Structure to design on (867 residues):
């Protein structure tokens, strides 16, 4: 039976304390925190991070990559292709976008469940709202990646998809005109009374398709536009146990919300458990799963878990939050802005730029970053071999803080990194405060957007402190 | 295969150098005309007798026409050269080789840069279309990484590093205060330098060279013809150049306490000039003090100081104007600012003044003797790990 063979989740490092909002905005905020993507992250880079974690947990190369976001970096151009390149999937794997609604990720899960082969379903969103709005405080930034297929001996199905059902209804709940920055919502009481009975109907239909009853379900996860709608619907489902929707620490993560909660749900279940995901977005989609015996080993594969990530991170000021989302314009250094990426140059260096694949000299073992055709001693031409470095860890040899160079969020923290198995590269550091950087600190690689010019995000890799 | 050099084959017979400053009222053409006219007058030659030109500018314009048009040269060969911040030195190097080859009798090197029309801070390179994976750091940030690396390797405390760097800036501002061509003509105290706001890492504003507009020019001929034009020419003893292969950025053995390209360049220059002990033969040096820490490390890479000892010799005053080895007697990049295409020739201009006794009395060095009568100029471009290096050795007599 088809099911989930691996998954990965990604919560960005920074947290906005909702209590920090009202003192500046005069309203809004609330209790708890929300996750905040860094200035150098977008849905594509976050989907790559979640995808890398899912890949690490899986021995199966996907045939298809799906990517869902309500705020993708590109329109017209497919965003999934950058994820495909960063995950170093084979050219034969299709890469497709699902957008732009909050229902699109669950659509990916259902399509993958009813399809063939192995599909990697990624979803990611960065949620914003007007200063002081419910969307601003209640939103969250996250990515999730779910691998769905028939499994293999090495990568067995960890959760069988034993039933699903959908109910579709056209009504005006929340919407955004393409090009607008902020979403709008109707009276959420209207959404609540519309979703709750529809949720129960869809849930029962999925249970019937799975041949189980409400009593057989250990835990239900409800993915909803707001926490209030989620709890009203959960009541209507009569579930024994409802999964915490992470609204106190993470927030509502748009298209990524159902997949993130699905990862959290699977990490919270035991072998044999029947669990269900009920996703409310322009209708209701319910998926019923049964955790297999093989899932007992899953906790080792899915590190860090959603819960672990939700419990970590570091605070970000409200001012930085606004600046990072482009809602507060900070005076840039009086230095030229970068030029746009050359499409042709980027295409030629695809495997370095997106895949972080260096070269190595088979004779000396030296790693060359960026990859080179000629050996370091100049003696041998075109004899170098590929050396993937995305998962390599390294140590800071020396570092500096550049207060003058152009950056979307100055100053730049910059370090020379020696990788454990060879290779050195001067790299920009991310997700750290100036005073955290030290010679000898351990770092790992992460896929980021250096800057965007002419609508072209300049994707490349940065180092971040290994906080394991 | 060898680097034979052209020792004593070429003489500089005339030079010109504009004031280096923010010339809001002068464009590149004005700067070129000023420096070139001064050089013609200095050599006592008419423009028409100079056979060929090498024009150094990093971003002032493309092709030899950028020089030929403002000077209204009539059917002359003009080559525009660019080699990072060593561009001006490279122009001279090419002019010297052209005359040494026998192809021309008189050649002129002109370096000029108009940096202050960009509206940005610092120097800015025109970007080449690329894949977006290169570094975007400032030069200050790249050089700032040398400070902690040097301190750690040689056991020099943060305070001692700071004091040594401040001494270098204080010394160069002192020298520049006595130079009417310098941009900054005020003495600056070590306390002010040490307390200046940080630009990158441990480097503050006063650890960094400024930016300026300027131009300089030199006319060269065969050494045996020099006395047709002047009684006191300057002879070329060595012209050395090394373009690094960028390996320092990715080479794990590189430790940011030395610039290997410069050490290699120095070895070649000393070989060409027949210098065994630089401290015994060289009476002064103009070096590329883009940052204070750069000058400190250069003292070791040029062989003036043993490894790990330059910081102490700096503090002992060895490189001061009245020291045993005066360095940047004109005030250096620190006082002049750095019009990229002109700086290398500005360094040569100081050697031209000092070795021929033409420097003002309050700046004239007293280290020149019969045995010790050479000047060295050193000009670099790029960053630690990825650098070009130029060194000239010059003398006022043959042999």
């Amino acid at each position: 039976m088809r099911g989930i063979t691996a998954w990965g989740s990604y919560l960005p490092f920074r947290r906005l304390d909702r209590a920090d909002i009202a003192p500046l905005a005069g309203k809004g905020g609330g209790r708890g925190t929300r996750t905040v993507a860094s200035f150098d992250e977008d849905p594509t880079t976050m989907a790559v991070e979640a995808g890398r974690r899912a890949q690490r947990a899986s021995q199966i190369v996907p045939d298809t990559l799906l990517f869902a976001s309500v705020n993708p970096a590109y329109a017209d151009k497919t965003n999934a292709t950058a994820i495909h390149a960063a995950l170093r999937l084979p050219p034969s794997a299709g890469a497709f976008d699902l957008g732009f609604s909050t229902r699109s990720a669950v659509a990916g899960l259902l399509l993958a469940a009813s399809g063939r082969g192995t599909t990697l379903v990624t979803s990611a969103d960065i949620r914003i709202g007007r200063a002081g709005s419910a969307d601003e405080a209640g939103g969250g930034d996250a990515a999730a990646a779910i691998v769905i297929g028939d499994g293999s001996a090495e990568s067995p199905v960890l959760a069988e998809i034993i039933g699903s059902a959908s109910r579709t209804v056209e009504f005006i709940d929340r919407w955004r005109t393409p090009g607008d920055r902020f979403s709008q919502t109707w009276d959420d009481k209207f959404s609540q009374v519309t979703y709750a009975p529809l949720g129960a109907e869809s849930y029962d239909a999925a249970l019937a398709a799975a041949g189980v009853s409400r009593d057989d379900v250990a835990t239900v996860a409800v993915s909803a536009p707001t926490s209030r709608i989620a709890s009203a619907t959960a009541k209507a489902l009569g579930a024994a146990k409802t999964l915490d929707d992470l609204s106190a620490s993470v927030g509502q993560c748009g298209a990524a919300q159902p997949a993130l909660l699905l990862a959290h749900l699977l990490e919270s279940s035991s072998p044999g458990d029947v669990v269900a995901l009920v996703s409310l977005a322009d209708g209701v989609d319910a998926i019923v799963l049964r955790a297999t015996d093989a899932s007992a080993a899953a906790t080792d594969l899915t590190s860090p878990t959603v819960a672990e990530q939700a419990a970590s991170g570091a605070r970000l000021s409200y001012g930085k939050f606004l600046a990072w989302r482009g809602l507060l314009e900070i005076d840039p250094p009086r230095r030229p802005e970068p030029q746009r990426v050359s499409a042709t140059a980027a295409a030629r260096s695809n495997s370095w730029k997106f895949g972080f694949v260096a070269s190595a000299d088979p004779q000396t073992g030296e790693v060359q970053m960026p990859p080179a055709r000629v050996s370091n001693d100049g003696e041998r031409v075109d004899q170098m071999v590929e050396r993937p470095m995305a998962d390599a860890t390294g140590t800071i040899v020396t570092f500096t803080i550049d207060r003058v160079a152009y950056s979307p969020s100055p100053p730049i923290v910059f370090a020379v990194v020696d990788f454990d198995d060879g290779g050195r590269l001067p790299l920009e550091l991310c997700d750290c405060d100036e005073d955290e950087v030290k010679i000898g600190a351990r770092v790992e690689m992460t896929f980021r957007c250096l800057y965007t010019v002419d609508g072209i995000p300049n994707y490349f890799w940065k180092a971040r402190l290994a906080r394991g | 295969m060898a680097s034979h050099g052209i020792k004593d084959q070429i003489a500089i017979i005339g030079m010109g150098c504009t004031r280096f400053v923010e010339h809001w009222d002068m464009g590149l053409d004005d700067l070129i005309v000023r420096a070139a006219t001064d050089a013609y007058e200095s050599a006592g030659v008419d423009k028409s007798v100079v056979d060929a030109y090498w024009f150094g500018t990093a971003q002032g314009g493309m092709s030899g026409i950028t020089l030929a048009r403002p000077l209204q040269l009539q059917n002359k060969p003009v080559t525009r050269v660019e080699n990072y911040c060593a561009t001006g030195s490279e122009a001279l190097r090419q002019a010297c080789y052209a005359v040494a080859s026998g192809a021309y009798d008189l050649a002129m090197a002109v370096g000029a840069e108009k940096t202050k029309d960009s509206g940005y801070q610092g120097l800015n390179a025109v970007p080449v279309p690329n894949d977006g994976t290169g570094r975007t750091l400032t030069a200050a940030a790249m050089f700032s990484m040398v400070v902690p690396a040097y301190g750690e390797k040689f056991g020099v405390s943060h305070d001692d590093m700071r004091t040594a760097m401040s001494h270098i800036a204080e010394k160069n501002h002192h020298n520049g205060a006595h130079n009417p061509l310098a941009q900054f003509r005020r003495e600056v105290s070590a306390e002010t330098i040490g307390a200046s706001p940080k630009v990158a890492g441990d480097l503050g504003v006063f650890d960094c060279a400024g930016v300026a507009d300027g131009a300089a020019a030199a006319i060269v001929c065969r050494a045996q013809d020099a006395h047709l034009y002047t009684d006191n020419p300057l002879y070329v003893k060595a012209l050395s150049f090394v373009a690094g292969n960028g390996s320092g950025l990715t080479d794990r053995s590189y430790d940011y306490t030395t610039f290997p390209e410069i050490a290699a360049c120095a070895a070649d220059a000393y070989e060409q000039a027949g210098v065994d002990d630089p401290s015994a033969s060289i009476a002064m040096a103009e070096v590329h003090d883009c940052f204070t820490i750069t000058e400190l490390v250069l003292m070791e890479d040029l062989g003036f100081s043993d490894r790990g000892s330059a910081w102490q010799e700096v503090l002992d005053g060895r490189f001061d104007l009245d020291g045993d080895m005066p360095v940047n007697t004109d005030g250096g990049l620190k006082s002049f600012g750095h019009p990229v295409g002109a700086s290398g020739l500005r360094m040569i201009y100081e050697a031209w003044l000092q070795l021929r006794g033409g420097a003002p009395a309050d700046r004239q060095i007293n280290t020149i003797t019969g045995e010790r009568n050479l000047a060295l100029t050193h000009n670099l471009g790029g960053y630690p790990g990825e650098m070009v290096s130029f060194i000239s050795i010059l003398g006022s007599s043959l042999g």
